[in-house]
Design a protein that fits this description.
The complex is a heterodimer. Chain A is 52% helix and 4% strand. By secondary structure, chain A is mainly alpha-helical. Chain A has a domain at 1-42. Chain B has two domains: 2-56 and 214-371; 62-213, M75 peptidase, HXXE motif (A middle domain of Talin 1). Chain B has helices at 15-42, 54-89, 93-113, 122-125, 127-132, 138-147, 162-171, 176-184, 187-220, 229-254, 275-291, 300-306, 316-332, 338-344, 346-371, and strands at residues 310-311, 314-315. In chain B, β1 and β2 form a beta hairpin.
């Protein structure tokens, strides 16, 4: 049995805040030497609330890390088999070296977007199978268009393993799962009606987890990969994972991608804890909107990198694989700014028969995608610096 | 991509050379880091020197350097295309010689354009990649000729097109007769050659035409922030010098990316013996951009003088000019094809590379910090 208490905190906070306000107004004319009022309950600077818990999200972030490390062994001459990787994807048969992950009830597969219009769980499994097959056959081969294999950077500092179409398996699996699980769950599940709507309980506090509504919001935050003590002034040195790290592309050109999303998450949690549901719904929209900007700025960044590294096949195809996944990933948010037809047209320049394929791409194509994204998202002024 | 390892076997592992270079590089890196650290503490970047007529600097660059150089590139590519067509119409030795001369002219013109090829309009047309990706993948060139199926401009085709691929077709066979015979006997080969020169002409004239419209905006964006024209051109010339002149033309053939094993076949013009001339031309182009046009009162040089830029107590613009002139003299003194010289005169070649590296310090550290310009390009691959 959980230890359950009735949540009176929220109501008392509102009343207390209002009383303080009235009291302070009444005193302004004669408060020269100040009155020591207790501080009202204000939104914190970091995601520092009572009862925040998102260990399930942290588990999934760590599962993805371990899965990708296993895939990356191919560049050291080890070909991971499909069964191991599929087990990691579904967390079956204790596939992880970290026993905590094996013991976890969480998994990536069941939380992956499943449906039409964007890469889904079945296609992820297809990429995993194709990877295992190519890795077994071509792990010692040198990549060329039409020929899977490894390609080494011009400065010799590392290699990537690509499929016949120049797509890096490691990137397309990792960054697509970032979007199809983390971004999708945050945008379409945990900040939506079913998880934070008025029908969801927001009065019964489970110690350590808050109310259901609070907990769901915290789970959305947990997918971001940012610790609860990160603030706008210290986040660069914080332990950031996945989307938490990719705020830096926008921040580097003066777009406050970190601050914006953090503020949205804090406002939403504060609104839920103070039962301000109008603000909660606004914050949910802001979360989706500002998270989208992380993917777009990062996508343009990698297009710039790819264009700059034409001639170094390893860097070029690696960076283009990244760019593709960040643009493809925009699909998992229904409120996205880019229209479905624009999205499909831009992505089509990087696809053949509906699948990522980069060996026939031109620099003009890449510039075209970049320019159109910049125009759609109002990033004209910074598109070359991203 | 087998061509990357084509010359792996030629070099003799020269540990002492590579170690010496590694030490030099480490020292240089430390110096660079220290300088950067000092700059990081003392500069507030963009608005440091707002009191100079930067739009006049930009106007001189736009109207007297960049515009005219793009025009020369476009006309010389047109001449190249005409010469190739004349050669194909009448496969004779004089026409072959004409085409070769026209190629050298176009390539020389191109060298003057590379310092500003990393922003618009060159960037959109991928001017550098389309015209001058080297070393060529000769297997891919022959494969494209044999199949007759290719699409110029694809990223995967760039190392089988442009000036280096034309050079391969005009020079690489054993004798002039062999070249003419190969063309006579194979219509696909003739078609490929004309497609290559037509593509060069198309890209060069598009860039030249678009510059006319772009140049107005270029002169107007007269700040020093990252998106300003000065920010772009200084970043572009640094990237060009560091990655494509120092590394591409000298460092990589010398073995900086192959454990000190020289890769002489990776020089810019391995079949024609023109690599030295092209290296000279690019250093001259860089000097022209920094000095400004003949008699101009506004240039990067005058701007550096205006802010009192110095290197170790000496006027920085003079240090840079003398250093580039010294580099030009070193290159001018090379008495044989660059690919042979790099291997046979290892000591002098190491010195040339070290001196090219020294110019990076003057341009990327001293010049940018004195003008309050931030280097925003990066050569990383993220994660």
């Amino acid at each position: 049995m959980f230890n359950i208490e009735i949540k009176m905190k929220n109501l008392s906070q509102i009343i207390f805040g209002a009383l303080c306000g009235l009291f302070a107004m009444g005193l302004t004319s004669c408060s020269d030497d100040g009155v020591n009022l207790p501080a009202p309950y204000n939104p914190p600077e970091s995601y520092n609330f009572d009862n925040v818990s998102y260990s399930g999200q942290t588990d999934r972030l760590n599962m993805l890390s371990e899965m990708i490390s296993t895939i990356d062994e191919v560049t050291e001459g080890n070909a991971p088999d499909a069964t191991t990787l599929l087990n990691m994807y579904a967390n079956e048969n204790s596939p992880f070296s970290n026993p905590d992950l094996n013991a976890s009830t969480k998994q990536l597969k069941s939380k992956t977007y499943s449906g039409l219009g964007a890469i889904d769980a079945n296609e992820i499994e297809a990429y995993i199978n194709a990877f295992a097959q190519d890795a077994a056959m071509y792990k010692d081969s040198t990549w060329a268009p039409g020929q899977p294999g490894s390609v080494t950077k011009a400065d010799g500092s590392g290699s990537y393993f690509l499929n016949a179409d120049g797509v890096e398996y490691s990137e397309i699996i990792e960054k697509t799962l970032m979007h199809a699980v983390f971004y999708y769950q945050a945008c379409e599940v945990y900040t939506r009606e079913g998880k934070i709507g008025d029908a969801v309980d927001n009065t019964i506090v489970t110690p350590g987890k808050g109310t259901d509504m609070e907990h769901h919001w915290d789970e959305a935050f947990g997918y971001w990969g940012v610790p609860t003590d990160a603030t706008a002034s210290n986040f660069e040195s914080a332990h950031l994972k996945y989307f938490g790290k990719y705020v830096k592309k926008g921040e580097a050109v003066g777009i406050p991608t970190f601050q914006n999303l953090l503020t949205a998450f804090i406002s939403g949690r504060y609104a839920i804890s103070t039962m301000d549901y109008t603000s909660r719904d606004e914050a949910a929209q802001e979360v989706r909107q500002h998270w989208e900007m992380i993917s777009v700025t990062t996508g343009i960044h990698y297009l710039n990198c790819a264009i700059a590294n034409v001639g170094d096949d390893a860097k070029f195809y690696h960076e283009l694989s990244e760019a593709y996944t960040f643009i493809q990933g925009l699909a998992y948010n229904q409120d996205r700014i880019i229209s479905g037809s624009d999205w499909a047209a831009l992505l089509g320049l990087l696809e053949v028969n509906g699948e990522a394929s980069f060996t026939s791409v031109t620099i003009a194509d890449l510039n075209n995608i970049k320019n159109q994204l910049a125009s759609i998202y109002g990033l004209e002024a910074v598109k070359n610096q991203l | 991509m087998t061509h990357q390892h084509r010359f792996w076997g030629i070099g003799i592992l020269s540990l002492s050379r590579s170690m010496r270079r590694a030490r030099t590089n480490t020292l240089t890196s430390i110096v660079l880091l220290l300088l950067l650290a000092i700059i990081g503490c003392s500069t507030d970047g963009a608005n440091k020197h707002p009191d100079y007529d930067r739009s006049s600097v930009l106007a001189d660059q736009a109207n007297n350097i960049i515009g005219p150089n793009f025009t020369v590139l476009a006309t010389s590519c047109e001449s190249l295309d005409n010469s190739i067509n004349t050669l194909i119409a009448d496969l004779s030795l004089p026409h072959l010689e004409d085409a070769r001369n026209a190629l050298l002219n176009a390539r020389t013109a191109f060298q003057k354009c590379t310092p500003y090829s990393s922003f618009e309009p060159s960037n959109s047309y991928a001017l550098r990649n389309e015209l001058n990706t080297f070393p060529s993948d000769t297997a891919l060139i022959e494969q494209n000729i044999a199949s007759g199926e290719y699409a110029l401009g694809r990223v995967s085709t760039l190392d089988a097109q442009g000036f280096p691929a034309i050079e391969y077709l005009l020079w690489s066979a054993n004798s002039d007769d062999d070249i003419l015979n190969a063309l006579t006997n194979d219509s696909n080969r003739r078609d490929y050659l004309t497609a290559l020169s037509a593509r060069c002409q198309e890209i060069a004239s598009a860039v030249s035409n678009e510059w006319i419209a772009y140049s107005t905006m270029y002169v107007q964006q007269d700040g020093t922030d990252v998106g300003s024209s000065l920010g772009m051109v200084v970043n572009s010339l640094n990237l060009d010098f560091e990655k494509f002149i120092r590394d591409g033309k000298v460092g990589i053939p010398l073995g900086i990316r192959s454990l000190g094993n020289p890769l002489p076949g990776h020089v810019e013009a391995p079949y024609s013996g023109n690599s030295k001339a092209l290296l000279m031309a690019s250093l001259e182009g860089l000097l022209q951009l920094i000095e400004g046009s003949e008699g101009s009162s506004y240039s990067l040089r005058t701007y550096m003088n205006h802010v009192g830029a110095q290197h170790s107590g000496t006027e920085l613009s003079g240090v840079i000019r003398n250093h580039i002139n010294d580099l030009i003299n070193q290159v001018n003194a090379i008495d044989r094809p660059l690919e042979a010289w790099l291997v046979e005169e290892a000591g002098a070649a190491d010195q040339l590379y070290t001196d090219l590296q020294q110019l990076v310090v003057y341009l990327k550290v001293d010049m940018t910090s004195s003008l309050g310009i931030l280097i925003s390009y990066q050569d990383t691959d993220g994660d």
